Amino acid sequence: MSLLTKLASLGAAGLMLLSVPLDTAAPQNDVDGTLFLVNRQWMVTESYEPSDLRQAEVPGSVRQMRDEAASALEEMFAACKEETGVTLISVSGYRAYVRQYNIYHRKLRSVKGNEAKAQEYVAPPGASEHQLGLAMDIGQRNKPHLNDKFADTPGGKWAQENCWRFGFILRYGKEWEEVTGYKYESWHFRYVGKEKAKEIHEANIPYETWMIGYRTKLLERLMSD
Ligand SMILES: [Zn+2]
Predict the structure, then answer these.
(1) What is the domain count for the chain?
(2) What's the gap in Å between 136 CA and the centre of ligand 1?
(3) Global pTM exceeds 0.90
(4) How would residue 24 be classed by pLDDT, with cut points 50, 70 and 90?
(5) What is the pLDDT of residues 81-101, one digit of tens each?
(6) What CATH number is given to the structural domain containing 64?
């Protein structure tokens, strides 16, 4: 089998290996999967819009996510309610490119055009996981949210400890600012699927770092075939 045939037989994973230098921690181009890595280096195109968005049936606002992630969110919020009595709320889910563009430029104006300052918290358009429909900013009902205080609420604590059971990871951890390029965000959760979320949770490493190992394994599998 030729290398190209092998890569093609790997489907999305093969595409990923073809499309980026092999020595880089890089995204899959697997846009319909749940592992797509987005950050300031690996941006999503302006035209990308998930095809299976729906409203998650949870309390809160901006509840749109991809179907699989929405189901996982519903399961997670229900479990939190059942286990702790606390009601989690959605604060911000899917954002189209143009919406991220507006949010970013509003932030940029508020810090007088200082891009580094603006990007501490707000991703430039194309660099936000919210455009994937796989990220949700979570709050606790009647508590302050979208700031560090969420981490100290019972709901925030529960979410950090238990999100992996439902396929989510805390994407921008406290010790990971150098790697992720984002300040600690106790409220931002990313869906990757249950199996991978468990792995990443147990490894306790940033998604970028985990992706290097994942890519290496794919490559080894490819070479051993
Ligand atoms: Zn977020």
Answers:
(1) 1
(2) 6
(3) no
(4) very low
(5) 999 999 999 999 999 999 999
(6) 3.30.1380.10
The reply to whether 207 falls in a domain is yes
Task: Tell how far the Cα of 45 is from the centroid of ligand 1, in angstroms.
Answer: 18
Per-chain mean pLDDT for the chain? 85
Domain, as residue range, for 172:
3-94+130-224
* Element holding 208 (H helix, E strand): helix 207-224
Q: How far apart are CA 213 and CA 189, in angstroms?
A: 21
Domain for residue 58, yes or no?
yes
Ligand 1 centroid–CA 30 distance in Å is: 21
Q: Is residue 110 part of a domain?
A: no
CA 76 – ligand 1 centroid, Å: 17
Contact between residue 200 and residue 207 where contact means Cβ atoms under 8 Å apart = yes
The residue type at 119: Q
Query: Distance from the CA of 185 to the center of ligand 1, in angstroms?
Result: 8
Residue 141 lies in a domain: yes
Residue 215 CA, ligand 1 centroid: distance in Å: 25
Question: Which of these, 178, 211, 188, lies nearest to 139 by C-alpha position?
Answer: 188
